[in-house]
Amino acid sequence: MAAESDPVTANVVDRSFVPCSYDPLLGCYTFTIMPREGDFADERLVLDQPLETTISDGDTILVVIDRLGDGSVVVSFFDFERSTPLLLLLLVFVAVIVAFGGWRGVGALAGLVVSLLIIGAFALPALLAGSNSVAVALVTASVIAFVALFLAHGFDVSTAVALLSTLAALGVTGLLALLFVWWSNLTGLADESVGYLDVLGASIDPRGLLLAGILIGSLGVLDDVTVTQVSAVLELKRAAPHASVNELYQRGV
Predict the structure, then answer these.
(1) CB distance 27 to 51 below 8 Å
(2) Is there a contact between 20 and 12 (Cβ–Cβ < 8 Å)?
(3) pLDDT tens digits for 195-207?
(4) 66: containing domain
(5) H helices within 119-205, ranges in order?
(6) Which of 59, 51, 57 is nearest to 28 (CA)?
(7) How far apart are CA 34 and CA 157, in angstroms?
(8) How many domains does the chain have?
(9) Quick check: 216 pLDDT over 80?
(10) Above 60 in pLDDT, residue 3?
(11) Is 52 in contact with 26 (CB distance < 8 Å)?
């Protein structure tokens, strides 16, 4: 059962236009809602919204319900409930990947799932525990690259070459990021949300978090480039078996 301060799902069952409760000179839409969960489940409550609201009859929304000291109940709009359209989008995404990619597509999806598990089970807890952000990012990106590449492209020599190339490029990217973040005096404090990290009570270095974001964010580009280059050179070698290493390199580049 949800606490009163937690957002709960509610159905909009009626809408009317009346003077606002907080200012009778202004017009507001008053919605009758029925929460699906929490202490007020299946009760009819009132939600006031200004004129620019996009809420309509029949919508499913998230609301915060608070009981004041005098016993009155205040309902506040939190957000729209989007699980159904997002689930449909996810199913379409998976269907397209599998339809066009076959078993490679299934492997790519499995790699995506494993990557999210690695971030959730290792990277985030390690960062919250105060571990070195750059080291955590390097380990996370390397493991993700290993799992994602082999699951998506198969266990063969070309994938191994692409993995080694990705790790080498990741190391170069890490060195360049470390150098230029320090040289440019980037602090990682450009976003005010970084300040909320102090609330967690964790000793997280914002600059290290910035470097970690650069490393993990660059992984998606690096593995695409290395796989493409390895595939291109492999096709060139098959088309011209007697080509020298220098010729393959020049044409591959």
Answers:
(1) yes
(2) no
(3) 666 666 666 777 8
(4) 8-81
(5) 124-128, 133-153, 157-183
(6) 51
(7) 59
(8) 2
(9) yes
(10) no
(11) no
> Which of these three, 40, 56, 81, is where a domain ends?
81
pTM above 0.90, yes or no: no
Greater confidence (242 vs 202) lies with: 242
Question: What pLDDT shows up at residue 31?
Answer: 86
Burial 143-174, CB ≥16 within 10 A → b, else e: bbbbbbbbbbbeeeeebebbbebbbebbeebb
Q: Domain ends where: 48, 81, 114?
A: 81
The answer as to whether 183 is a domain residue is yes
User: Do residues 119 and 38 share a domain?
Assistant: no
pLDDT tens digits, 57-114: 888 889 888 887 777 788 888 888 888 889 999 999 999 999 998 888 898 899 889 9
- In degrees rounded to 5, what are phi and psi of residue 24? -60, -20
**How confident is the model at residue 190, as a pLDDT?**
67
Q: Are 163 and 149 in contact (CB under 8 A)?
A: yes
Gap between the Cα atoms of 133 and 131, Å rounded: 6
Higher pLDDT residue, 181 or 143?
143
Instruction: Based on DSSP, count helices (H) and strands (E) in the chain, helices before strands.
Output: 6, 5
Residue 162: closest CA among 176, 177, 148? 148
Which 3 state secondary structure label does DSSP give 68?
coil
Q: Computed over its alpha carbons, how large is the radius of gyration of the chain?
A: 26
Strand order in the sheet with 45-49: 45-49, 27-35, 8-19, 60-67, 73-80
At 86, list the tokens.
């997002």
Mean pLDDT of the chain: 84
